[in-house]
Amino acid sequence: MKTLIVAAALALTCATGAYAASHSETGNPMVGGAPMFMDKNIVENAVNSADHTTLVAAVQAAGLVDTLQSEGPFTVFAPVNSAFDALPAGTVDTLLKPENKDMLTKILTAHVVAGNWSAADIVAAAKSSSDGFYHFNAVSGDALSAQVTPSGSVFIFDESGNAAEVTTADVKQSNGVIHVIDKVLLPK
After folding, report:
1. What is d(CA 188, CA 185) in angstroms, rounded to the nearest whole number?
2. Every domain of the chain and the residues it spans
3. What's the pLDDT at 171?
4. How far apart are alpha carbons 99 and 107 in whole angstroms?
5. Fold for domain 2-181?
6. Helices marked H in the chain — which ranges?
7. Which residues lie closer than 8 Å to 159 by C-beta, 6 or more apart?
8. How many C-alpha atoms does 53 have within 13 Å on its Cβ side?
9. How do strand 74-79 and strand 176-181 relate by DSSP bridges?
C-alpha cells in the first residue's frame, strides 16, 4: 500500500507543472511536491504528498480515514516522514501493528484539533495570552500549546514539552486546514 501511495505521489508530481499556474492562484501551498486542492478533504490531499506517506499509512492503520474525510472542520498538524524517521528505531513498525491500534490512534488524534485554525488565528491567540503560549486541546484530549518566536516561527508543543515547528502553514482543505510540522507530537 505504501508503494502505491508513493507511486501515486510521484505520478502527481510529474503532472505538477500543468497545475502550477492555476494552483498558485488559489494561494494554497504545495506539499510534498503535490498541489493541495481546497475542494478536496484532508485525506484526499494527504495521499498525494510524498512527504506524508508514513502519516497516511498510520491514519489507515488506525482506522481514521473516514473520520478525517468527514465534514469537520479539523485542524491537523501533519508530521512529515522525517519526523517519524526521527523516532527511536522500530517505533513506527511497532505502532502500525494491529495490537497497538489504540496507542497509534491516541498519537494521531493528538495532532488534530476541532475547528478551522489558521496560522493567523494561532499566532493571534498566542500573542494575546499572558504567558506567550496559546493552550488548546487535541481531539485525543491531550493538551497542546502554541508559541510564536520573535522571528515569527510557530511552534506546537505536546504535553511533554517537545516542540514541532510549523514548516508549511494554512494548507486549506474542504474540511479544515493542515499545518505541516517537523516533529511527531507525543501524548504523555
Report:
1. 10
2. 2-181
3. 93
4. 15
5. FAS1 domain (2.30.180)
6. 2-14, 16-24, 42-46, 53-62, 65-69, 81-85, 91-95, 101-109, 119-128
7. 142, 143, 144, 187, 188
8. 15
9. parallel
Max Cα separation, the chain?
48
Cα(158)–Cα(52) distance, integer angstroms: 20
- Whole-number Å distance between alpha carbons of 161 and 142: 12
Band of pLDDT at residue 21, cut at 50, 70 and 90: very low
**Calpha distance 129→95 (Å, rounded):** 36
What one-letter code names the amino acid at 35?
A: P
Query: 3-class DSSP state for residue 148?
Result: strand
| Side chain identity at residue 152, one-letter code | G
Tell me the sheet residues that pair with 79: 181
User: What residue has cell string 479539523?
Assistant: 74
Each residue of 98-149: pLDDT tens digit?
999 999 999 999 999 999 999 999 999 998 988 889 999 999 999 999 999 9
Q: Which helix (H) or strand (E) holds 117?
A: none
